Amino acid sequence: MGTDLNAPLGQGPKKRPTRKRDPRRMFGYAFLGIFTLAVAGLSGWAAFRPDPLLRTSDPATSAEAIKAAAEVTAPSVKPGGAAGSLRQSGARSGAHVEEIPTDDGATVTKYTPRSRDGDGPALISAGPMRGQDPRMAALPNEDLIEDTPQGRLPIVGPDGLRPMDQYARPWSGARGTRIGLVVGGLGLSQTGTQRAIHDLPPEVTLAFAAAGNSLQRWMQDARRDGHELLLQIPMEPFDYPDNDPGPHALLLSRGATKNLAKLHRSMGQITNYTGIMNYLGGRFLSDADALEPVMRDLGKRGLLFLDDGTSAQSLSGTLSGAVGVPHGFADLVLDSELSRNAILRKLDELERVARRNGTAIGVASAFDESVATIAGWMEEAGGRGIEFVGISALVNDPQQN
Fold it and tell me: In terms of C-beta density within 10 A (0-12 exposed, 13-18 middle, 19 or more buried), how is residue 393 classed?
């Protein structure tokens, strides 16, 4: 050991103090190193894995790819008991229900235990939900589909879930000033349909013409963008046959059986819609014998009916109340005069109606002037405290009364 020249005379060499190691600091260094290695490993796995995550927001993504991506993050809903293939069991899973009529006309419901179908765990839902998982918005809920010769038609699910609720656009639930806007005629013009889907805010409800083209593709685009959908059904006007709504229109002369076949043929063109809206139809809507079978069919299928409000003689409100169909009336047609200033005046009038009554519904067609004017006005009106909602949030629903 060398001599410390700075030590005082007569003292030995000066020892350097020993630094004590802080165990907390050493643990922190070790944890940081392990975390860094874990992040690097996860990044490498994500970069080189054979099935990278799918982008469901890409319009070019196929329906099969969207469905496969959703199955990665959520279990499918199918019969069975294994994880990843569960069907919602319902609140009465594992119960035998027996209804016993009494002498005074009442009914006593008796519940006794029974073995539940399947050998897997029960998946019991809290009840019907409003809206659809955005990842699956372009695909129908298979529990709400009926395969028929006329196509895939909407029905109420085994747990009571209605298409009107499944495909509804969610909203805040606040009871402020609310406006529903419907732009119809989609599917008749390719450029007009594309412009309406992508230029209008997602709060606008889009109505597809049953006689349109490429409806399934346009439906998927609209649902991915967050729009609620209606299907426009052609009906007989007062000036028929001079004004002919098309070969698949509902006509008084056809009778109930043929009209229902025509209705189902139109309904099978697309899926994922909350209800039906008339196209023309002044005469048909004013005839109770012709309209009642249609309304009963809509009620059985869990759909709403929106009357465009163009016929003062319409009986849709009366009959919908009698058979329990969710029903709404449009307050104003916004583009009967096709100019920007005229449409703006109608929109301002619609806002006054909404502030007076709490809610209002306006309808328009997918003309360039209508789409551009509505989109611009909505941006301004949103700043005035108006909430824009899907039509399903504004109809008179017997189940909610």
Answer: buried
